[in-house]
Amino acid sequence: MKKVNRICIAVFFVFVATSGFTIHGWQCSKAFGNDDKTPFIQKSRPTSSLMRIINSHTSKILEAIIVGDFNTVIKKSNEVAKAGNAIMRMFFPDGKKVDQWFDEVGKDPDDPEAVKSMKEDFEKYSKAVIEASENIAKVAKNKDIAETYESFEAMLKKVCFACHEVSRAK
Predict the structure, then answer these.
(1) CA within 13 Å, CB half, 165
(2) Rg of the chain over CA atoms, in angstroms?
(3) What is the signed CA dihedral for 155, 157, 159, 160, rounded to 10 degrees?
(4) Of 64, 88, 94, 112, which sees the most CB atoms within 10 A?
């Protein structure tokens, strides 16, 4: 009986110690890769949500190209074109002031010239996203993996990356 009690006490101690370490963690934060720096926190905004939607579709386009699923490439390319149509409504809503994202990229949301300039850039990129994704769908109908990939890569380089260079905070 004494042996069973000692085992129960030992198990209880291990449980308490493990729970304590799990809940409170080690005080040695560098061991866990933590630093005094504030970690990156993704703010949830309509613009971020829209970009996640486009990212989801472009990831699936690439995956479908690799496996040769051209029907999915066409379907997802059309979804990117739909999202491209939503870009202007999300970033520059009709009759409303631009959102917080504009200030975060170093532009003054109260400066009509800055808003006009950025809106013109977004219109350009929005049209380019639509055209490029429609081109991917058109090329995918030929069922040529290399040609479809080249069309996809051109969209990323000429449209996505170029827009992000202009619209994201440095």
Answers:
(1) 8
(2) 25
(3) 100
(4) 64
| Per-domain boundaries in the chain | 2-27, 46-167
What is the enclosing helix (H) or strand (E) of 161?
helix 161-167
CA 60 to mean position of chain CA atoms: 13
- For 88, how many CA atoms within 13 A lie in the half-sphere containing its CB? 18
Cα separation of 12 and 132, whole Å? 63
Give me 13's structure tokens: 């101690």
Phi and psi torsions of 95, nearest 5°: 75, 5
The listed CATH number (1.20.120, 1.20.1640, 1.25.40, 1.10.3470) that belongs to domain 46-167? 1.20.120
**What is the per-residue pLDDT for 163?**
79
159 pLDDT higher than 60:
yes
Query: Which residue shows structure tokens 């993996």?
Result: 145
Q: Name residue 15's amino acid.
A: F
Mean pLDDT for 39-46 is: 50
With cut-offs at 50, 70 and 90, classify the pLDDT of residue 117. Answer: confident
Number of separate helices (H) and strands (E) present in the chain: 7, 0
